[in-house]
């Protein structure tokens, strides 16, 4: 069945020439970004401004979420040189706000928590004023791993709900309530860090379900939220049910601020780490 054409507000242009320099720079240190691996539609905009979300622990995921473009395959062991390589890339780019994520690594006993912490340490050793944001998997709700992440020195720690409970079949191996507990435990382990999450629209969710998910996030202390349009990476992935109009994203942003969120980015092209530095400005 052919895909429905994207509406006008979702026809963002990707311009490879705008990020050629960035790709060359990242390639020199064998650095990966979620921007490339997940085929983010904001890649030209962000790379053109020398902004990227670094992806550590390889490019292969141990789960197979039907909405995600990151490949599922047997991952390689963590690269011990990677934390320093990331720090050097941060230095070359002159970044002041760094976002670090990774594929889900259920094959590792700590889900990769130690590697995340080593990466934060390498960046902070370079310049302690650099703000580090982590975007993690649920780490299978490993309490010691979550505490380690919470105490890593990162100022913001994100874990995405992605969607409403009724549609959680798109998140293989994940559990809605577990994800809420993960966010709760991160904050309980370190009340000084900020927690953040993200929700996709366009999978068939109802307005009331999204509002309830927002309430659930506030209930576990999460005060930062990203809301964006789901775009299917290929015909093999979960199909888009609806292209959500910009005015509905504006509605959720307005409601979210009224409910108590400190900062929300809500628009068709918003992604978890899009304009990430703006969140900390609202702390």
UniProtKB/TrEMBL annotation:
PROSITE patterns linked to this entry: RADICAL_SAM
Highest taxon of source: Bacteria
Residues at which [4Fe-4S] cluster 2 binds: 61, 65, 68
Single biological process term from Gene Ontology: protein lipoylation
Pfam families: Radical_SAM
Cofactor note: Binds 2 [4Fe-4S] clusters per subunit. One cluster is coordinated with 3 cysteines and an exchangeable S-adenosyl-L-methionine.
Residues in coiled coil: none
InterPro entries: Aldolase_TIM (IPR013785), Elp3/MiaA/NifB-like_rSAM (IPR006638), Lipoyl_synth (IPR003698), rSAM (IPR007197), rSAM_sf (IPR058240)
Cellular component terms (Gene Ontology): cytoplasm
Stretches assigned to the Radical SAM core domain: 47-262
Keywords, in A-Z order: 4Fe-4S, Cytoplasm, Iron, Iron-sulfur, Metal-binding, S-adenosyl-L-methionine, Transferase
EC number, UniProt record: 2.8.1.8
Annotated binding of [4Fe-4S] cluster 1, by residue: 35, 40, 46, 273
Location in or out of the cell: Cytoplasm
Family from the record: Belongs to the radical SAM superfamily. Lipoyl synthase family.
HAMAP family: Lipoyl_synth
Official protein name in the record: Lipoyl synthase
Species whose genome carries this gene: Sulfurimonas xiamenensis
Lineage: Bacteria, Pseudomonadati, Campylobacterota, Epsilonproteobacteria, Campylobacterales
Gene behind this protein: lipA
